[in-house]
Structures are given as structure tokens and as C-alpha cells.
Amino acid sequence: MNDYWSRVLGRRLSRRQILRTAAGAGLGLAGASLLACTPVETKPAATPTAAKTPTPAKPVSGGRLRFAIPSNPSGFDPATTEGGYDYYQFLQMYQNLAGLNPKDEPVPELAQSWEAPDPATYIFKLRKDVKFHDGAAFDAAAMKANYDRHRDPATKSRGVRQLELLNSFDVVDDYTVKYTLKKPSASIFYNVFVHRTSAIFSPKAVKDGVNLKTKGVGSGPFQFVDWVMDDHITLKKFPGYWEKDLPYLDEIYYRVIPDPTVQVTTLRTGEVDFLAEVRTQDLGPLKGDSNLNVMVLPGISWMPLYLNHKRADLDKKPLRQAIAYAIDREALSKIFNGILPPANAPLTPAIWAFDASVKGYPYDQAQAKAKLTEGGKPEGFKFDVLVSTAHSGAVSVAEAVKNQLAKVGITMNIQLLEQTTVIDRVLKGDADAWLSTTGGGSSDPNYLMMQFFHSSARLNLGRAKDSELDALIEKADTTYAREQARPLYSQMLKKVVDEVHAQIPLLYEMNLQATSKKVRNYVVYPDWKPRFKTVWLA
Asked: Which regions of 229-345 does DSSP assign to beta strands (E)?
């Protein structure tokens, strides 16, 4: 084992190593790569890291950061929320046993340290200076309450599948917990210990009847104030936060602005300070504004067309292949001025298991028509695709794909729906197809393959089943050395592409963000999800 996991498994992190790792994670100012005022642009295939700039000025405490979000969150309960745009608030309100640093490596957070006496056992030493937003103390009992609530069928936790990796959870003492895995897992940190479904909430809040769906109660640097549907969400500085002198901001104000054009206008007029999702067509005007800082960074997400294998026609491989052959990815890339590269397979060039030799289906209308005949639909067929109105890029791609498919006789009807409605229907299997961005917020390839392609995965949104693929994913999850795991991922990617398994990758995403130059000390992470505890306003 010669990568990060060989360092995590089988040895204890010393205090010096913990402190050094914590600094690299952005827990303090030292060692963090910072983005202050300089526009940054990199090539898509580069490894995502934070941009390096000169050491910024001395931090300033106070102020209100105004953040434009395109839609309401689905809620704030770590156990039950279904994604959407809630992660903008999650990372401010909640923390996990471990967090991630700008290199996407697990680092201590609520756990002060951990050790792995064997690959299936993890022992965490918890911090003793942590309070929840309601004043309750964080300790091993709080960890057990979190674990038990996820396990309780009445909770209907979406984290149950992640916790299925665990054989047992034990409280060793007031500030020590032990997790025993059913089998060794190379992705256990991404699947459980840093995953948002394992974000630690206050057991007291649940006992007191607080609805975490509408009012998050964690131990993060910011605490919940209010949520006015379709208007705003307010978080304020948590005075009892355990990291000395953090956060710097007094408040974060999330303003719901569905229209991307209005988002850009409000940023340029100074009504908001931060846009986390910028359209490619808006890059030019934003870069030309001397008051703004624009970031273009390689991403770990991709945009696929999900196909539900349980639906009529889409359950036939030749017809799925017909769709794949009929899509011109180069033309789709041009919609975004070439900034988003064509995607040939799942996993992006920024992920170490990416295999450039997997080329995917070329644009070939003749082959598409031949596959339609092979699938018993020479005149074509129809299916519906769900697209979120909040994802303007996906809407543009869906319209282009619809026109491309029509040229070979395939009719794709676009249903534009609100984000939470789309997610609800897709998770229930109530959709032929879905076009959106995916990636799960992680650069760990096994986490991604397990989440989106394993037959048992809840996020296998195409409902595809393949025992051979399952076996490859499971084998890779117990293979820690990258040189040994890489061929397994190559086999997976080839199989997924050949079978048109669950999804057709269309484009690789880039992280496009823009801020006012008043925003200082913003650290860019590979998952592009903003963290604001070290940010201040000039």
C-alpha cells in the first residue's frame, strides 16, 4: 500500500502529524492554498487543487456574506435530506468525525485522531472541547445517538446503505468510539466518516422535538437562524465554535435566485458576494469586471443522461446503444464554448482511476439506426427525460440532445421540473431518464462506482443490474494500492460504457465560481463545495 490509504490504515497519527494535516485542511491559515483576489484558470485534465496566491492581509472579523443560490434546499437533516442545494449550508452547520483538505484527503475534524489496528477496525479519539449549537456537549454518547437514529427504520435514513459497511459501533469511553467493518473497505472514509449522511447532529435537539429537516443543529462554525421558502436562508456565527478565533464572518445570507441572469446581475451590482455555479456564457462578462474574482477549475463531476433500465425500450441494450451513437458530444461541448470537454466514460480526468483509453460511443447516425433495427424499433421510439429548472446548463444540453436524437427517429420529451421534485421522482424510479450533473462530491473512484453503478446502490438511478460489475467494484474496494486497483477500474469503465449501464456520460464538468473581491481567504476544494469558516470580507 503506497498511497494515502496505506498511511491511514495500520498506524496511529501522531499529534504532530495531526496538526500538520489539520493545517493542510484549512483548519488554520498555515499551509492552506488560498484564493484571495487573483482570477485562476486551469486545464480540464489537471489535478484539482486550491489556487496559490500571495499571503493575504490580516483577517478581519465581522460582516455578512451574501450568497446566491438557484433553489431551495431539500432540508437540513443529515439522515433524511435528499441532496439538491442543501450542501451549501451543510458544510457550515455540521461536521463529521473527519473532514477533507484541499487535496481531498481525510483529516481530523470532530475526531482528534484515529488509528486502524487492522483494516477492518477504526478507533476514533474525539475532541473534548466541542459543543452543539443548542449548548449540548459532543461526546461518544452523541455519536451513539447519531448511529442509532440512522439505524432506526422509523427514521428512513438515506445513510443506511453507507452504514451497512459497518458490523458494529462501540463506545469505548466518553471520548473514544470504535467502528468494526464487515470487511476492509478502501472507501470507508468517503462512504461513512466524511460523508454528509454521517454529519453529527445534536441528540438533544432531536429529543426536544426539533425538526432537523427545517432547522439544522450541528456543531459547525455557523448556526441556523431562519429559512423563508423561496426567499432566503440565514446562518450566523456560532460563538461556541471550538476552533479558536473562527469563523471570521458574523453571518451568511443565502438568497434564492432561480434566474442565472439575475444571479450575475446581482453579483455585478454588489447585491450578492458569491456565485458558486456560473454558466460558461457568463464567464466573459464576469472576467471583464475588475471588481470580481473568477475561478475556472477542473472538476470531479460529469454530466450524464441517466437511462432507467426498468422502463420499456430502455431495458434493451441495442436501443440504449442507439441513443449513445446518436449523441454528438463535441457539439454539446460547443454549447459551453468548449470549456466543458466531451465525456467518454464515468470518472473525470481529475480522478486518479480515469482511463483515457476508454473512448465511449462515437457520434454515428448510421450505427444508431442499425441499433434501432437490432432492438426491434427501426422507426424509433419515445421516452421522457426529467431536467431541473435550476440547472440551466442541463436544460441547454437536453434541448440539444433532443434535436440530435430526433435525427435518427428517437423522440425525447423534456419535462422541466423543480429540483426537489426531480430528485424525488428519480429516487422513486418514477422516470424514464434524467439529465443532470453527478459525482457525489468525492474524488474517490470506488465511492463513485459503488454509489452509482453497483446493483444494490440507491443512487444506481438507472436500476441496472450486473453481477460481474458488482464483483469488480467490491474487489476494488478491498484493494488499497493504486497500481493494483487501476486495472480493475479500467475494466469497470469499459463494461459500463459497453453496456450503456445506467447512464451515458456527456460532458466533464468544470468548477466555475465567481466572488466579489471583498471575499478573502476562500479555499478552493476539489468538490467545489464552499466552506466559509476561514473566509473574511475586506
From this structure: 232-237, 251-256, 274-275, 292-307
Alpha helices (runs of H) in 418-462, residue ranges in sequence order:
419-427, 445-453
* Residues linked to residue 166 through DSSP beta bridges, in sequence order: 181
CA distances from 284 to 207, 289, 294, 376 (A): 51, 9, 10, 47
How many residues does this entry show for the chain? 538
Bridge partners for 298 per DSSP = 510
CB of 395 closer than 8 Å to CB of 415 = no
- Taking the C-alpha atoms of residue 526 and residue 39, their distance in angstroms, rounded to an integer, is 17
* Residue with the three cell numbers 427504520: 153
pLDDT band at 266; cut points 50, 70, 90:
very high
CA-to-CA separations, 126 to 110, 130, 135, 172, 204, in angstroms, rounded: 6, 9, 17, 11, 18
Please state, rounded to an integer, the average pLDDT across all residues of the chain. 86
Ramachandran quadrant class, 309 (left: phi over 0; alpha: psi -120 to 50; beta: rest): alpha
Partnered with residue 305 across adjacent β-strands are 435, 504
CB 159 within 8 A of CB 151: no
**pLDDT tens profile 349-405:** 888 899 999 999 999 999 999 999 999 999 999 999 999 988 888 999 999 999 999
pLDDT at 314 over 90: yes
Report the C-alpha gap between 202 and 218 in whole angstroms: 6
- Give the span between the Cα atoms of 412 and 527, in whole angstroms: 31
Let me know if 521 is exposed, middle or buried by CB neighbors in 10 A (0-12, 13-18, 19+).
buried
Contacts of 431 (CB under 8 A, 6+ apart): 306, 308, 384, 385, 386, 425
How far apart are the C-alpha atoms of 358 and 345, rounded to whole Å?
Answer: 7
Peptide bond into 153 cis (omega under 30): no
pTM score of the predicted model: 0.74
At 127-159, the pLDDT tens digits run 999 999 999 999 999 999 999 999 999 998 888
DSSP secondary structure of 26-77: TSSSTT---BSS--EE--TTSPP-PPP----PPP----EEEEEESS-BS-S-
Calpha distance 265→263 (Å, rounded): 5
Distances (CA, A) of 485 to 301, 308, 470, 481, 489: 21, 29, 15, 6, 7
Dihedral, CA atoms, 190, 99, 62, 217, nearest 10 degrees?
70
Contacts of 418 (CB under 8 A, 6+ apart): 71, 388, 389, 390
Which of 40, 94, 88, 38 is closest to 67 using CA atoms?
A: 88
Say which residues have a Cβ less than 8 Å from residue 466's Cβ, sequence separation at least 6.
453, 455, 495, 499, 501
| Rounded Cα–Cα distance for residues 383 and 394 (Å) | 17
Q: How far apart are CA 280 and CA 258, in angstroms?
A: 17
Q: Kindly give the pairing relationship between strand 166-173 and strand 176-181.
A: antiparallel
CA distance 170 to 98: 18
Residue 411 CB neighbours (<10 A): 12
